[in-house]
Amino acid sequence: MTRYGMVIDTELCFGCQTCAAACKVANNLPKEVAYNTVYTNGTKAYDCATGEFPASLLLDFLPMQCQHCANPACLEVCPTGATQQRDDGIVVVDNDLCIGCSACAQACPYEGVRTLLSDEPSYYLDVVVGEADAPTHVGGTMEKCTFCYNLIDRGEVPACMQLCPGRARFWGDLDDPESEVSKYIASHETHLLKSEEGTEPRVYYIG
Amino acid sequence: MAEIARPCSFSRRSFIAGAATLTAAGALVGCSPNKGDKESAAPAGGQEEIFPGVCSGNCFGGCYLNVHVRDGRVVRTTARDLPDNSYKRICARGVTHVGRMYSAKRLQYPMRRIGERGSGEFERITWDEAISEIATKWKAIVDEHGPAGFGIMAGSGSYMLANGCLFGGDFAYRPSAYGFLANMTRATLIAKDIDKGTNLGPARATGGIGLTNNIADRKNAKTIVIWGNNPGYATPHSMHFYTEAKRAGAKLIVIDPVFNATASKADWWLPIKAATDGALAMGILNALASNGWLDEGLLRDKTNCPFLIKEETGTFLRMSDLGVEPDEDGVDSAVVWDAASDSAVANGDAVDPVCTGITEVEGFAVRTVYDDAMAQIAVYTPEYASEICGIAAEDIVELARVYAQEGPVATESNLSYNHYKNAPNASWLKVLVPLLTDNVGKSGSGYGVANAGAIMNVVDPAVSAPADGSTASRGIPANAYQLALEGYFAEDGTYLPEGGGVPLKGALIHGCNFMSTDTDREFRSEWVNGLDFMATMDMYMTETCLYSDIVLPSSHWFEREDVGGVGTHCYSFYNAQAVEPLGESKSDYEIFRMIAEGMGYGDLWPETALDYIRLAISDEALDACGITFDDLLNGAVISAETPLVASTEATSLEGGRISLYNEFVTPEYDYGQEIDESLEHSIQFVEDSDMCEGSEARQKYPFHMMSEKMRTHTHTQWCDCEFVKEYEPEPIARFNPADADELGIADGDIVKLYNDKGYVVIKAAMSAGVPPKTITYGRSWNEEDYIDGHVANMSSKEFNQIVRNQCYNDVVCAVEKA
Predict the structure, then answer these.
(1) Are A17 and B767 a contacting pair at CB < 8 A?
(2) Pairing status of strand B732-735 against strand B788-789
(3) Which among A50, A53, A121 is the nearest to B772, CB-wise?
(4) pLDDT higher than 50, residue A168
(5) What span, in angstroms and rounded, lies between the C-alpha atoms of B796 and B721?
(6) Which candidate from A51, A129, A133 shows the least CB-CB separation from B76?
(7) N or C: which terminus of chain A carries fewer CB neighbours within 10 A?
(8) What tens digit of pLDDT does each residue of B515-531 get?
(9) Three-class SS of residue B434?
């Protein structure tokens, strides 16, 4: 079996937003819709340190997207079956079935990983950009990170993984001990976000 | 000219049909506006092609990209493989090129200004009208004032050979096409030499040899000191070299007034007070000397410490002073005292040169360079230096110990310190710290920032010399931009310090947006208003375009063919034309060619950019890289044989020695300024009186305004890209929360920052990483992006007395809630 997973090493992430912007373009995302954003810990303001100058300062970044949980809280609560889990573990939303009820967002312990599209999503450009098989964006449906299954199904890697300037992201098959992601997990101390929720995320964090 | 093989792109499997196509006029057709809905897109082949492209702005990235094209339109950009993928690179800007290419702000046809400068009132004109008007106005200026009356200003907008602003080598031989046009027309070349402050120190110390190792060598450092650089923002492509070195065991030290994303990665962050780096360096030198951490042998054998300074003149005692004629090569050696022979001998002849205590030689009162330097250094005890720079005395001593005992130390110094008036002095002191502790010229050490590229290794800069061979006498202008108002030019463009030349009356602006990015916007406006005519080439309607008489739409980088790319790596690349230019836009090369034709020089121009590139690139140099020109067009990269370790065996200074004393003061531009020479001979800390704590200015205007690089703009490039506004949506001023509390300002409030020169109205943000009484802000915006005013209205055009640097950071202000 293949189970896709990711490691994000926040000690190497310096908050440049390249992963977020790559995702945005690759998936032709509408205005103000992000599958993936780099948050600044402890503040809503991007890139602003917290604490006291100069003795106790903190400026850490948290790249955040759907955790593609093995036991996703969003799955059971979806009333229409729009939220689905593929055999490789990727959690997807079928926008033909989604009614935009937000039950998934309420059940999910992770904030800021999905967006309910407005009735008429708008775009920065008049032209379609991104991958030819990027997700469609249907008004009134819920969207989130797809792990770029369109790309991985043809042997590529998700857009956010194509090049992280900080070399902070690692990807691959968790069931393959020789994959980059498995080897990184084996050699580093990782943790899961809100592991107490029992959702068993497939995105591992370091730092 | 031989036929040149066109490059191949390669296809990428693609399943779903693409969408719109572009008409010749640039209108996007074939689909209703983007609905993100496959079904609304016009069915087409959907075949995706990938072309090689170069993201060529001036961020030191020089990123080699895959440009993904479907149905005649770029749809994505991704990082492209390099021979050594540790250099493989892209950033939030590089992945959002489509946002620039298809921006609503994109210029698509030539325009003529019909309202006041800056009003934004333009009319659409044809290319024929535009070129004809430029040529007519240019020729009229030449007729009245001579060729030097018209200038070509080129900034750093793109480091590409044909279309860009490549420079290097002799000033007269700027190898890009703008240099060709300037040479041909004998126009005044207007240099954007704004970053020169931090070059002077290393030049004084070593004569200007490269001191930085290849960035791939950072992993061999035991300690990395980032001092005057913020790679987390400014060169994100380089950041992983530092964090990976840290992970591998190197100690990462960051010296920066601000706790930013780079400082947050440090093992040890030293919050220095702004503009006091010279005092810190002097404190380190003091601690090195007083703890016995300076290698006396190095000082004696590798520096000019034994040289003797004549008390009367401040110049070195030379053999001619002792009655010895210069040798057959005209060399009049500096004198040193040789303990072995107990006599004064020529430098180089001494067996045992003496560094200290020599006060008289054959009737000349003298002191050694060592004694001169140590007298200055002695003042800056760690305690005293601490009072100035704000770093604790024991930390200064520890930094000195690190340099002495925890090497190899790599010192990362970029251009950030450049924009204080005291940058030249400070940079001399800074570079002496690694030089005098043996932390240059070996693996894991070095000073500066690796920034090479390979293009200049294979280009013959003389390509831009006039092809008729008869008009190469164009003078080398000084900073026309700064001085043109005074009319300091001879007819051939030669700079005349005494005045009496011709005024600059017309200008063609290429690759820069000076109205926004330079200091003292009021002065720049005056400069523009003093011109009879100004034309600007750009991709979108920048602030500078708004002040121009004619605006010419430049094509995007991926809409034209070129070679180049300069970054913190050792490569340069072929950039294919991936798609047709949008609308009526044209490549910069083609625009220059058309203007040249209008000026009557058309027959001298190679027809295409590729023809020009073919002339410029030397086959022998390519051969040394192991490739042919055809290979280059087919995706082989130009690799520079950059040594991993810089050689510092020989400085170009006297005796090959590191210098701690500067004999002669030669200003870069002599425009009649008064020069205080006492600041320029001995190593010393020079206070930045314009903004330092306790200055007169700070009494009235308590806040220091410190500009920062932005993560999502390169200067004002990407102001036209909406995607990146999701991260950095607008100009902001970051305050320390304690200051904000005192001022009654909350996060998101609108504030007015003002001083004697001007004001800006801007949104406030809070960051505890900002030092007290300081405001940090990204400067890379256009006037239209500010709520009111402009940060460039608040700075002064004043610069260092001998080197021209733009002092963006010598700005203070008061704050009120708007």
Answers:
(1) no
(2) unpaired
(3) A53
(4) yes
(5) 30
(6) A129
(7) N
(8) 999 999 998 898 899 89
(9) helix
